[in-house]
Design a protein that fits this description.
The protein is of the alpha+beta class. It is built from 6 helices and 12 strands. It has a single domain, classed as T-fold (Roll), CATH 3.10.520. Strand 3 and strand 4 form a beta hairpin. The longest helix is centred in the first third of the chain and has 18 residues.
């Protein structure tokens, strides 16, 4: 069973290989994404995040999900030496650098809890893959060419874990270096990270991209992560273990 819907401003695809999957199973996943969007969107005036940014909700009244994201963001800030910060240069909060991966993993956990072991959840190119595909093989996930959206530059295989990509080739230079309060270096255009789950991959990909060229070295040093960086000249650099995932 496979379905794609547009939520959180991007296509989200869920595929379940296991027999017994019904419409309600996938519906539960999409309902989870809709709830996340309603809570954390920085584009919807009615979201809790926007209300917090406008000063309409006191911290004591934050939802449990909001508290969790702020706690996870603070932990990530510490773990990355300050290169991850959901507070923007303008003083508002934008948790998108951590919420997307968190939401995908949350959706995948829903399917696991419902007894499924072979599926993937893809939100805008960031993927959590568990078990095997319909052919009994690892899930194959393509990394797009940041200079040509129709071309895949690398294909990786996962059977439990996640991959997330940070870059400035779709939305422009929207990632900031929290230390300088300026846009991230234009020297790199794409950084993909493979992790034990998509939440870990996503948060560290965001921070590593903000580091510029040093980001790939940071990923190399973090146990359980592998990365693939493409610079503005189209030259790729990968961590030592990334080749083990390439197919």
């Amino acid at each position: 069973m496979k379905e794609t819907r547009i939520l959180m401003g991007m296509p989200i695809t869920v595929e379940i290989v296991d027999r017994g999957a019904v419409v309600a199973d996938i519906g539960k996943v999409f309902s989870s994404f809709a709830s996340v969007d309603g809570t954390f969107s920085t584009y919807k005036d009615s979201s809790e995040m926007m209300k917090i940014n406008r000063g309409e909700i006191a911290e004591s009244d934050w939802s449990p999900a909001m508290r969790e994201i702020f706690e996870l963001a603070e932990a990530t800030k510490r773990e990355t030496g300050g290169y991850f910060d959901i507070k923007t240069p303008l003083g508002s909060y934008d948790p998108s650098g951590i919420v997307k991966g968190w939401a995908i993993k949350k959706a995948a956990d829903i399917l696991s809890e419902r007894g499924f072991g072979n599926f993937y959840v893809d939100a805008g190119g960031d993927v959590e893959a568990r078990g095997m595909n319909a052919e009994g093989k690892k899930w194959r996930i393509g990394i797009r060419n940041p200079f040509d959206a129709g071309e895949i530059v690398k294909t990786v295989a996962l059977c439990g874990g996640g991959i997330a990509t940070s870059g400035n080739y779709e939305r422009g230079n929207h990632i900031y270096n929290p230390k300088t309060k300026t846009p991230a270096s234009a020297e790199i255009v794409s950084l993909s990270v493979i992790g034990p789950n998509v939440y870990e991959a996503d948060r560290f990909a965001t921070a590593a991209f903000a580091m510029g060229r040093e980001g790939i070295n940071f990923i190399e040093r973090v146990p359980g992560l592998e990365g693939y960086l493409i610079d503005r000249n189209g030259i790729a650099t990968m961590t030592s273990g990334f080749k083990n995932y390439v197919r």
